[in-house]
Amino acid sequence: MRWLVTGAGGMLGRDMVGELRRRGEDVIPLDRAALDITSPGSIDRAFAEHRPDLVVNCAAYTAVDAAETDERQALAVNGDGPRLLAQTCAAYGTRLVHVSTDYVFSGDARTAYPEDHPTAPRTAYGRTKLAGERAVLTEHPGASAVVRAAWLYGAHGRNFVRTMLDLEARRNTVDVVDDQRGQPTWSVDVAARIADFSPLVGVGAHGVFHATNAGQATWYELAREVFWLAGADPHRVRPTSSTALSRPAPRPAYSVLAHDRWQEIGLPPARDWRAALHEALPHIRKATSCETP
Predict the structure, then answer these.
(1) Residue 112: how many CB atoms within 10 A of its CB?
(2) Which of 142, 134, 101 is nearest to 249 (CA)?
(3) Which alpha helices (H) appear in 76-152, and where do they start and end?
(4) Is 220 a catalytic residue?
(5) Is 3.40.50.720 the CATH classification of the domain at 2-158+184-215+254-271?
(6) Which residues contact 148 (CB under 8 A, 6 or more apart)?
(7) Three-class SS of residue 30?
(8) What pTM does this model have?
(9) 15 — alpha (psi -120 to 50), left (phi > 0) or beta?
């Protein structure tokens, strides 16, 4: 089977390509320069040249705050792009897996969001990602799936864990919000889960799935775990509130996602976020040190 990964230059995209290559799969990695998902011509050329059997769409506009004043561009990438991909996949008979986010929910729940919970995004970013979900499932029903991830970190690109490692080396103390709760999730685990279930899309698996690590934590608790695993004093991390950090886009107070649908297709539950972080941190520190001049 030939896989095409869009957004292959991003954090999840790079891990997706790496996971598929480790499995010996035939994978075509296309970054934004090679494939602009907002351009019908760019999509047509990529499909005509590569003839993929399955597309994993990791391309996205992820600047949550900037989207509040740039919603048109965010919608072009997060909503219109997935629609164009889904239409082309339908025309070619290609299966599609589209990556989405917890921001499609309101963030005010008290128990884990099941896959079929009503959506109610509170930000421009969330609205545009929801538009993409709906487009994929409408334009290519039966041979597509939406995979929601949240609180992603990894070895590539900017993310919370890398930021905490950097701040640990430069500051005596770090203030981190303690009133937002979610599931810290290693991008490598998301890539592995997508690789596991994507061959089932269209032949037993379709619709929405949640791909986060199990358990839950606040950003403050995650930061303390990072410090501890890095050999630093976790008491250097101090709790603060969301109101103390003014941002254009409100962050969900609760982003814990349920994973019930994996059982339906015979896949085991995701591992706990602490176990994933313990394995991930050496890889992240190595990647960070290699990037340091």
Answers:
(1) 18
(2) 101
(3) 81-92, 124-139
(4) no
(5) yes
(6) 99, 100, 101, 102, 104, 115, 208, 209, 210, 211, 212, 257
(7) strand
(8) 0.96
(9) alpha
Rounded to an integer, what distance in angstroms lies between the CA atom of residue 24 and that of residue 4? 14
Q: Does an H or E element contain 228, and which?
A: helix 219-229
pLDDT tens digits along 180-230: 999 999 999 999 999 999 999 999 899 999 999 999 999 999 999 999 999
Six-digit token string for 11: 């954090």
Catalytic residue among 125, 153, 220, 254: 125
User: CB-based contacts of 152: which residues, under 8 Å, 6+ apart?
Assistant: 11, 12, 159, 185, 186, 187, 190
Q: Which of 47, 55, 67, 208 is nearest to 138 (CA)?
A: 208
Q: Which helix (H) or strand (E) holds 146?
A: strand 144-149
What pLDDT, in 10s, does the model give residues 100-154? 999 999 999 999 999 999 999 999 999 999 999 999 999 999 999 999 999 999 9
Please give the single-letter amino acid code of residue 266: G
- In angstroms, the CA 98 to CA 120 distance is 19
H or E stretch including 95?
A: strand 95-101
